[in-house]
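Before a colleague's protein record goes any further, I have to sign it off. Thanks in advance; the entry in question is below:
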Amino acid sequence: MLNIGDGTRRVWPSGQRSELSIHSNLDIDKTRLQEVVRKFYSFVFGPFLERLRKLIWSVRPSSHFFLADMTFISPFLLALSFSSSLAAARADNFYYPPEWSPKKGSLNKFHGQHALRERARKIDQGILIIRFEMPFNIWCGGCESMIAKGVRFNAEKKQVGNYYSTKIWSFTMKSACCKHEIVIQTDPKNCAYVIISGAQKKTEEYDAEDAETLVLPVDEDKSKLVDPFYRLEHQEQDLKKKKEAEPVLVRLQRVSDSRHSDDYAMNKALRAKLRGQKKRVAEEEAASKKIGLGIRLLPPSTEDAATAASVKFAHKFDRNRRDKRAMIYSGSIFSGSSGSSKHSELESKRRKINASAASKLLVGGFKPSSWSEATVSSKKDRLALRSIRS
């Protein structure tokens, strides 16, 4: 006798030992056969199910009511089903720790987390993370690239209003190309999606007249063709379109006949064009090999020649002239008498160092490191001169 908790009591079917009688006549009663099979299962698996029931009751008390109501299932299948569920209890996230109790609520409440996990990290703001699929082709407002229909995003879904009793949802997402924010809302009034910001819908309107194609009649027009007046009006419109398009069609047919009437001439022109193309490719490859390049160069053009002529490179003459001018600017205006050859040599070195620093300053290549090095070297030269004079 088991107490469920709501005031009712249910009896767990215990195994009953009884004699198993098998009849050899073929007209045996179906109900009697089911009763014999049930008693056989109870006799064989009764003790095992009793131990299994106690184990499940110790792990999950809430499953006791389920076990008590499943008396119509054969004990063998019941044992197999619960043994497999116990084996995969941890894998299916149905593991109840020992410190859990029904008073603490569900497992999510017990662990302090939401059932949707990371998707509900902004649920306190009314925002839910969903997978949003682009309903049409759009142009990104950040980089002007096209986002095709069907591309999916992780979007923030929230309610921004109501249209009568229908909610208006807003979807905020970031494009994968430039991380630009795109906001799209539902339009229940027109049963469509509206771009609020961050993108522009790609216009894809189709006009049969501009495309010069035929428009297939819809079902309503087919039903109206039964009416003789509507059919007469429809035929008049078709005849009018035929008269307008007939000159254009005749002209196109004449141009096509003039171009493709002579198959031999067309084939000859095509083969001549192909031979000329092959010859040009061979000449370009030979020219590339001659100058040591592994790729073919484009044929020369006047624009490339003008661009190459406008480029000026620095020559050694110009560099020497700048160095001499800088040496003159950095030298002293008073002529000093040199006491020895070493003194003059050190003085020339100092002037060269100062001249190189000044030339860099004139051409805009001044660097603090080079100026400091020149200053340090000039100080060393002065110390050497003082030691020689002394």
User: Anything to note?
Assistant: The longest helix spans residues 228-260. The chain has a mean pLDDT of 74.
